[in-house]
Amino acid sequence: MSLSPPKSASNPQALEETVMDLILSTLDKKSAGLNPDDPLFSGLARFDSFSLMEFVLRLEEAFSIDIPDEDLDPDIFHSVKTIMAYVQRRLGKVT
Question: What SS3 class is residue 46?
């Protein structure tokens, strides 16, 4: 699946859609009812260490950001909302 980055990462809806698409494509799932607050290490979406690294690479490419190793924290990658907040901080677009 080829994903195009949102026109503006400051658009919360576009950002949320892109992050959710990246998660679902990483986990090879269809739109399976993932909610922005759902934990990504349990429940419906289950990241393990390999899928998390694949997701991070996709996230870096989609938003043209570098994610340093020290930021590979379960709190940052807890849910779609926490990832969105992180991406906005990395881009300097805190809302």
Answer: strand
